[in-house]
């Protein structure tokens, strides 16, 4: 019941641009999630998925109109503007995530995992593929590649400043448990 969120109602041309916000601390907002987890121990495979409905997100038509207004005010630099990123972040109503891990990939000390998360309202998201090698107890090496994808002005593309590919390498010493 109620929300701390401020929604952008309109963006208009001016110096500085005029952005009208509103809040709502008296309405009911539905948020719901459903998920699954599946394990196949003989294959050393674990899969998990989750769907989120966020009633505080914008309806698609409202979101599209606000993006159009932002482009009219901010011009060609809209996508890199921090105010535009605040408008886009968390703007969808439908999100999903999926994870798959193969704990013994080709060898008992190698693992392979895939993680993806996306905004189903604007068809954007990111995916990360990781390969891990347990060198010995307490030391591992992990390599990963992450990809951001979507259409123009979609959440994950805007937040990553466009289509992005990131590569990572990590050497882990010790453990996180104590």
Structure explained in plain terms:
By secondary structure, the protein is α+β, with helices and mostly antiparallel strands. It is built from three helices and nine strands; from the N terminus they run ββββααββββαβ. A seven-stranded antiparallel sheet has the order 3-4-5-6-7-8-9. The model has no long low-confidence stretch (mean pLDDT about 85).
In short:
With 178 residues, this protein is an alpha+beta fold.
Q: Please provide the ordered H/E string of secondary-structure elements.
A: EEEEHHEEEEHE
**What structural category arises from helix and sheet content?**
alpha+beta
The total of helices stands at 3
Overall average residue pLDDT: 87
How much of the polypeptide forms β-strand, as a percent range? over 45%
What's the gyration radius in Å? 21 Å
Q: Which segments are poorly predicted (pLDDT under 50) over 5 or more consecutive residues? A: none
The main pleated sheet reads as: 7 strands, antiparallel
**Number of E-state strands:** 9
Helix content: 10-25%
End-to-end Cα distance = 39 Å
Q: Which strand order do you get reading across the main beta sheet?
A: 3-4-5-6-7-8-9
| C-alpha geometry | elongated
């Amino acid at each position: 019941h109620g929300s701390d969120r401020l929604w952008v109602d309109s963006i208009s041309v001016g110096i500085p641009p005029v952005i009208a916000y509103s809040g709502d601390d008296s309405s009911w907002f539905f948020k719901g999630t459903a998920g699954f987890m599946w394990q196949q121990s003989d294959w050393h495979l674990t899969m998990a998925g989750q769907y989120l409905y966020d009633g505080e997100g914008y309806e698609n038509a409202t979101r599209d109109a606000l993006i159009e207004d932002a482009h009219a005010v901010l011009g060609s630099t809209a996508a890199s503007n921090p105010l535009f990123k605040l408008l886009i972040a968390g703007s969808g109503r439908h999100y999903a995530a999926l994870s798959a891990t193969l704990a013994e990939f080709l060898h008992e000390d190698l693992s392979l995992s895939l993680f993806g998360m996306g905004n189903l309202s604007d068809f954007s998201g990111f995916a990360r593929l990781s390969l891990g090698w347990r060198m010995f107890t307490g030391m591992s090496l992990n390599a990963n590649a992450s990809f951001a994808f979507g259409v123009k002005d979609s959440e994950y593309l805007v937040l990553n400043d466009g289509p992005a590919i990131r590569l990572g390498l990590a050497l882990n010493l010790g453990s996180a448990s104590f």
